[in-house]
UniProtKB/TrEMBL annotation:
InterPro entries: SAM-dependent_MTases_sf, TrmK. It comes from the Bacteria. This is tRNA (Adenine(22)-N(1))-methyltransferase TrmK.
Length: 260
């Protein structure tokens, strides 16, 4: 059986290094490790699943593909299914950024031999970027794509190479998140860069602009709901939403102007 991955999963697969020992956490049907094992791209994989339904589906998938010698399906919460130094690449995809961070944080002791993380948060990408910085994982690349009406970001992070000094990480990280002024005058500070993505905000694509236009629309809907409420704290909160929305609109106008 030939496996055709979605565009989103294919992007993640493309960032798994050849001959990896992979852990795919929250693997669901284990499509990603099965595809990579069939392609002979990985030498070993652990497909981790906490929930019984997806776990059973993963077991069936691996068995059906006769890949039990390469892929082991393990049931457990996050990185609890992995031993330290057992894998060198970890993928965690299709869940919120907050959950991805809590999985990584709860399993930091399992990350000792891991050189690469490929993470695809459905929301809360800024939380993931913030965690990577705090834990000294260098964000190496970001990709944004649209599929079936949804927009996804994929983040690739690596541990600083051997011999890399702590202050080199600090320098690289500092320059990645250093404030930047756009041609229109808008300043992207650290908080904006964490939100937008330090790479994505440099190579502004149609999908990227669309993502942030959706965010403007979402803010508009929140403001409309607030307008119908007479809760006391609403005035101040409303001002914050108005300010955020107008900054986003300014940014989008800026990007569009820069692309003319
Ligand atoms: N990674 C696949 C993908 O991107 O297509 C599946 C994504 S699916 C939406 C999320 C999966 O993560 C579910 O199968 C869920 O059971 C699993 N999951 C959620 N929390 C988890 C955790 N703490 N540990 C392991 N798996 C988890």
């Amino acid at each position: 059986m030939i496996i055709k991955l979605s565009k989103r999963l294919q992007q993640i697969a493309d960032w798994v290094p050849k001959n990896s020992r992979l852990a795919d956490i929250g693997s669901d049907h284990a499509l990603l490790p099965t595809y990579l094992a069939k392609e002979k791209h990985i030498v070993k994989a652990i497909a981790g699943e906490v929930n019984p339904g997806p776990f059973d589906a993963a077991v069936r998938q691996v068995k059906g593909a006769r890949l039990e010698s390469i892929i082991e399906v393990r049931r457990g919460d996050g990185l609890a299914v992995v031993q330290a130094d057992e894998v060198d690449c970890i993928t965690i995809a299709g869940m919120g950024g907050g959950l991805i961070v809590s999985i990584l944080q709860a399993g930091v002791d399992k990350l000792s031999g891991v050189q690469r993380l490929v993470l695809q948060p459905n929301v809360g990408e800024d939380l993931v970027r913030q965690w990577l910085r705090e834990e000294k994982w260098l964000l190496k690349a970001e990709h944004i794509l649209e599929e079936d009406g949804k927009i996804y970001e994929v983040l690739l992070a690596e541990r600083p190479i051997e011999g890399w000094q702590a202050d080199e990480f600090v320098q690289a990280d500092k320059s990645m998140y250093a404030s930047r002024q756009l041609a229109c005058g808008f300043v992207l500070d650290e908080q904006w860069l964490l939100k937008l993505g330090p790479y994505l905000s440099q190579e502004v694509s149609d999908v990227f602009i669309e993502k942030w236009q959706h965010e403007v629309n979402k803010q508009e809907r929140i403001l409309n709901t607030m307008a119908k409420s007479d809760a006391e704290e609403t005035a101040e909160r409303r001002e914050q939403f108005v300010a955020y929305k107008s900054e986003l609109e300014e940014l989008i106008a800026c990007w569009q102007k820069g692309r003319q």
